[in-house]
Amino acid sequence: MKDVSVFTPAGRLLSSGLVSAVYRRRRLMDLLMTGLAGLAVLVAVVPLFSILISVAIRGLSALNLDFFTKMPVPIGETGGGVLNAIVGSGILVGLGTLIGLPIGLLSAIYLAEYGRGRLADTIRLFTEVMSGVPSIVVGIFAYAIVVRPLHHFSALAGGVALGILMIPVVTRTAEEMIRMVPQSLREAGLALGLPRWRVTVSIVLPSAASGIVTGAMLAVARIAGETAPLLFTALNNAFFSTSLLRPIASLPVQIYTYATSPYEELHRIAWGAVFVLVMMVLITNLLTRLAVRSGYEMKR
Amino acid sequence: MTHSSKQSRFQRWLALGIAIASLATVTVVANRAVVTRAAEQISLTGAGATFPQPLYEKWFAEYHRLYPNVKINYQGIGSGGGIRSITEKIVDFGASDAPLTDEQLAAAPGKLLHIPTVAGAVVVIYNLPGLENARLRLAPDVLADIFLGKINMWNHPRIAALNPGIKLPALPISVVHRSDGSGTTNIFTSYLKTVSPEWAARVGAGTSVKWPVEAAAGKGNPGVAGQVKQIPGAIGYVELAYAHQNKLPFALLRNRAGKFVDATLETTKAAMAGAAAEMPDDFRVMIVNAPGEDAYPIAGFTWLLVYQKQSDPVKGKALVQMIEWALKNGDKMAEELDYVPLPDNVQEKVLATLRSIQY
Q: Inter-chain contact A261–B244, Cβ cutoff 8 Å?
């Protein structure tokens, strides 16, 4: 083969100096593209890390035990914390998850397993549209259906707003995950005589569980940082409150309020609260990843 | 086998029944505890202007210390949000930096009272590199023409004539204003409208206006302060507290008496005292270009918005008592935070209005 190749046009080309030029050009192109890809990664990662680092630097100095266990103090007094906002954020996100997760998951099951025809297409379209709706609009919606009829700002209204925001995120990711479960698994279940619902509950959902959980965590992370939909629903509360029918404090709204105030002391607390919020989201994400992965490995 | 499984099923049902029963008991007991506690606890919610928020928080925290059963939660969602919330009766009181228009008052389901609490000064901040420590002097017509775009260089002869000792740079003037609707803008544009016929004709006053000059905009007081800090040659307007806290220089303004005055507690108080003589009964008044030797010309009240007929007697009483306490005892706290408390003659009048509230 080698000897023959010298006499073919391609072979002659290969043996000539042109060959190395072609290769060099390809290698250069390869290098250039790898470089560009690396640059793109850098562009994406640098802001993330610069945010994390600057939040850590400016936030850590504000943190102490009081920060987590005391109530805010008015300007002019030192000390105090954001206990009410931390607890309030927990309640709001929990409430949002309680509302958003079941609805989102059930719509995803319907769309992936049962939905056919125009109804399913319409639902899918609306889910897409909903995920593009600015969060403040969702806040106004919750204001109209909860705050106005009840005649006061309430944690419930905030939870509804966050829940609605969560639905499309959960639906879209869960539907994708459920669709990825191989058809053969379903057929195997049906062949054993399981009813359709049983196949969904006992075979499809467990197989898709890790993906669904990841999607749900993404949704939780998204709503945990939302400020706009809370401003006109949960409002904020200078006092400690766990009542669902009263205004409630939350970290994002507290950060917003403090950051726009003229006082350096409040800015410092705002940075601390930002750090706590980022850490809460990060830790929940990591914990779920860990839980999902260990579950997956156990199954294997 | 069947026997034992039947028994275990029975046991399981029994256990479930007991669990539900005990849960129900706990819930009922807990509910009762909440009900008895709620009888003595009073929670009021207020929302509106962001400008007085630090002071209101301070007042209400202090009040809670004195009367631990009263919790007053105030949140700065903006004057517009405050007016809307009180009109829709989803808060116990509203707050605004801009007085309600007649149409807004008519839209409310009951008679709304304006209760002025404090006043604040709006200052003209600027960024002139190298002149951080110099205090610029500005006259009303010059200020209006800067914001109209007719004076667009810092070394313009009309600015230089007012500031003989200062070597002004040949720097273009960049105007910065608020991007959001704001009580501060209302105060500032009301002033320009009062002092400049051209401004009155071309722009007018309001919480947001059509600015005549190409300008940068910032959201909220911090947004404007931030923009001015970043742009050399910038000029903007913010509440006094923001200029102080951000250590931004602000201009001395020539008042109606022809004197250049600094924005301080005293000069703002002087402006209020001047306005007090012409105070209308509903307190809807702007304190711009006030008469008086030492009156600072750009200031404004901030108001609480309260219904004259309170629907809840307990809450209504608590609300009136709290406002009365704040007006009588809140002066020192206000001054510490750069707010100007009401002069005595105005306060008397406000207390009389407060007593007209029915609950």
A: no
